[in-house]
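Closing statement on the protoporphyrin IX containing FE sub-project.
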Amino acid sequence: MDATIASIVISVIALVIFKYTIKQANKYWFRPKKMEKRLREIGFKGNPYRIIFGDSKDVDRMRAQVTSKPMELSDDIVFRVLPYHLHLLQKYGKKYFIWFGMKPRLSILDPMLVKDILSRPNEFRKPGNDQMGTVLAGGLFMSEGLTWTKHKKILNPSFHIDRIKNMVPSIVESCLEKIEKWNLSLASKESIEVDMVQEIDPLIGDIMCKTVVAGPISEESKRMYQLRIMMNQQAAKLARLMFFPGWWSLQTQEVKTIKAAHKETQSLVKKMVTRRLEEMKNGASNQGDMLSSMLEAFQDEASGVSLDDVIEECRSFSFIGKESTARPLVWMLYVLARYPDWQERAREEVLQIFGDQKPNVDGLNKLKIITMIIYEALRLYPPTGVIHRCISKDTKLGDMVLPAWIQITIPITLMNHDPDIWGEDVNQFKPERFDEGVFNSEMQSIFFPFSGGPRKCIGQSMAMVTSKFVIATFLQHFILELSPSYLHAPRHSFFLVPQHGMKLVLRKLV
Ligand code: HEM
């Protein structure tokens, strides 16, 4: 009898182990291999699947290698910013895939297909289960389905161009405060050296607070920005782990720090939100900022917006708005310093429109040269280097049927530096490419600085208006030059950043 029970127990255990082994073998080997076969069948090429790690170790090694030293002063930055993409492109041609751990990511570089993907957000969705994306971006940026539709509708008016135009005086005021500070340092000197990364960050933080919560930077916001710096640093260290299944549950110091900082941020935002809610209950008016719009929706039961939704959007916008405006602005100032002839043309335009008066909204649409320079900077130095999407069922794209559960990468930086799209002078700074703007049909088919389709950037007008007025006020007062100590080292760290800072020399305009 005992022997029978023992043999039953052993058989059950053996069965469980067998089933578990089959499941794991399927997950770690057979499923990726099946995916690989399907991709090769539709004409994509890539490295053969390597168990668990895929291409991740090579991606890491190559990134470490190229970022170990600065590059020459050139706008041909792809080899430094997306080295592995470039490597596969050269090896396999434009239809290539990268193994992100066990998942293949298909690169789509054909502008027509990219446009198609972006216009079908219900089929090509943001990758789910992206814990880092949820913590670092979250809110509208990461949401899907009904929540996205509802929130976008509520938030859109706060980012409408008419509301943004009303903000121009306060944007200019914030810039003038910065200029006054620099002027004080310049009082007894011919020139000063500044790190624009350090200068632009608080300036844009101040401007964004006015958009998001209609007020100056509060103590809570200051602490949130400190926490954010900490989170970005830890997240950069974790980038090499993210392909690993279950990495978010690992008890590493970096993960613990990010989770703690995220929690503290949420409670700071909650304080700001409940304070504003009290003010609104006591009769404070809606100032058109995004927090007021969300709180108004929250007070209307039919809207289905919860207080947690309000807190999450407020948290998300405080960070996305600031970083996605500040990071590219630094590169815009870089190109102005690097190309003095274009800086001079932009200054002439500013002085012609505003003279020595404060820049004002009437001149907004006349800033043609500055607009062209901004677009060319966004082309050569795109803040968002890649856009990711995924599909949950077999999906037709062009003349292909993409297999279910595949991830798709749109490598914006590669596309913006592709000679087949832009011509042989692709790596030259030529703002005249945009002398007819970006809204003509040719540009709309090849240039996606703010993405496209229904999920295009909600902050586009905000970012463009802010950048134009920051540049205009700076050029009215200073000549910008690259510092001799500047090291050219663009690198992706969620956004495109100058790895060793952006050292510029400011001279007073006489
Ligand atoms: C030059 C500055 C900016 C650039 C180049 C930029 C670029 C982009 C891009 C490429 C996307 C699409 C990402 C994707 O689909 O995965 C996006 C989406 C988004 N951006 Fe921006 N952005 C900028 C400024 C801003 C600002 C100032 C804000 C907020 C104040 C903002 C808020 C958002 C949000 C919420 C989304 C998600 C929209 C949705 O899914 O419906 N962005 N942005």
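The CA atoms of residues 140 and 152 lie 7 Å apart. With this model delivered, the sub-project is considered complete and its resources will be redirected to Aim 3.
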